From TrEMBL:
<dbReference type="InterPro" id="IPR051347">
    <property type="entry name" value="Circadian_clock_KaiC-rel"/>
</dbReference>
<feature type="domain" description="KaiC-like">
    <location>
        <begin position="116"/>
        <end position="312"/>
    </location>
</feature>
<feature type="region of interest" description="Disordered">
    <location>
        <begin position="1"/>
        <end position="29"/>
    </location>
</feature>
<dbReference type="Pfam" id="PF06745">
    <property type="entry name" value="ATPase"/>
</dbReference>
<protein>
    <recommendedName>
        <fullName>KaiC-like domain-containing protein</fullName>
    </recommendedName>
</protein>
<dbReference type="InterPro" id="IPR027417">
    <property type="entry name" value="P-loop_NTPase"/>
</dbReference>
<dbReference type="InterPro" id="IPR014774">
    <property type="entry name" value="KaiC-like_dom"/>
</dbReference>
Length: 372
């Protein structure tokens, strides 16, 4: 037919070959009625898959009534401000200008060990003379260096002074109920305490043990962090505990993944209750404390026991040792409430108790400062 012949001879419009449409249009962009067979004319020849995607997007945005997404952290800022009758909000807001005792002086908790020399008075001219009272601290170091023995002697002296103390045991059993013949931790604590205080067994029982409580919190018995906190809070608030030793903080979390978080929780509670707390900590093979920088950042004070190599004859002469010998030192990594002694302190263990003392070989130009 004539019309058919004319259509066949009509030149193609610019676009895809063999596809009718407007100049420059891609496939599926033709005018209504010029799409592919079976295509909705109202969609202008749109690709069926694209059409389905647009329909789904429309349903998600409005057809199904879904709310727009937003950052969950912005949720507390939505809605109306709480009314003034909510006394809890006002109670949590602090106005320092109302304090009568705004400026405080850091007080010491004497230990009778090298720990008395690691922190200084405000003017930096004297050793503080004890652990910074009211702080939650970490004493970290390799095994066998005298950490536990130092804390046991400290517990005895503090309890003898009349302060009620608690000993949290997480690494071993405290009392050998089976009678296996082992010199258990309770026995070792008594012997070290008697030697540290100079008391007889009867006097030690009356003057020291009457002010002491022990919490066993071993994870192999199914004890969790929450179980420990429940017992800890009960004891602190019921007995009025003023000083606590935890041996060791790392073993309260055998995964070693939440040491810093647990220490932060414990520190906040201790601050509220006025508790001085010394946590014994472990180190990794690298020499860094378990819990890493996060743990060191969290603690009020960190005391680190290390081995120092005397790598030259000059250094060996300065520290009273032999060339290439390794000596034990302790240093204050930080303390938020007082200045710290700026040099390492060479340590030695006291005969009989194993407590850590300042070595007589400490260099003269790095001598510890006199007690306040």
């Amino acid at each position: 037919m004539a019309n058919d012949d004319q259509n066949q001879q009509q030149p193609q419009q610019p676009g895809m070959p063999g596809m009718p449409g407007m100049p420059g249009m891609m496939p599926g962009q033709g005018m209504p009625g010029q799409g592919m067979p079976g295509m909705n004319p109202m969609m202008g020849g749109m690709n069926p898959m694209m059409m389905q995607m647009m329909q789904m997007m429309g349903q998600m945005a409005g057809g199904m009534g879904m709310a727009p997404q937003f950052d969950a952290s912005a949720a507390p800022f939505q809605g109306e401000l709480s009314k003034d009758e909510d006394s809890g909000l006002d109670a949590d807001i602090i106005r320092p200008a109302t304090f009568d005792d705004l400026i405080r002086k850091q007080e010491p908790l004497p230990t009778g060990t090298v720990l008395d020399h690691l922190c200084l008075t405000e003017d930096g001219k004297h050793s503080l003379g004890g652990l910074p009272k009211g702080c939650t601290m970490a004493l970290v170091g390799p095994p066998g260096k005298g950490k536990t023995r130092t804390t046991l002697g400290t517990l005895a002296r503090v309890a003898q002074s009349g302060t009620k103390v608690a000993f949290v045991v997480a690494e071993e059993g405290f009392h050998d109920k089976a009678g296996s013949g082992r010199d258990d931790l309770g026995s070792r604590m008594t012997k070290i305490g008697m030697s540290a205080t100079g008391l007889s067994e009867a006097e030690f029982r009356k003057q020291v043990l009457e002010n002491m409580w022990v919490i066993e919190s071993q994870y192999h018995r199914g004890q969790t962090w929450d179980d420990f906190i429940a017992k800890y809070r009960y004891l602190v608030e019921k007995a009025g505990i003023g000083f606590v030793v935890i041996d060791s903080l790392n073993m309260l979390d055998p995964s070693k993944n939440k040491t810093a978080d647990h220490l932060s929780t414990l520190k906040t509670y201790n601050h509220e209750q006025g508790v001085t707390c010394l946590c014994v900590g472990q180190i990794k093979d690298t020499g860094a404390p378990v819990g890493g920088e996060a743990m060191q950042h969290t603690a009020d004070a960190v005391f680190l026991i290390e081995e120092m190599g005397l790598s030259s004859k000059e250094i060996a002469s300065e520290w009273g040792g032999k060339y290439r010998e390794r000596i034990d030192i302790i240093r204050a990594v930080k303390c938020v409430s007082s200045p710290t002694f700026p040099h390492p302190i060479r340590i030695e263990q006291k005969p009989g108790t194993g407590e850590l003392l300042v070595s007589a070989l400490q260099p003269a130009d790095k001598a510890v400062l006199p007690l306040a």
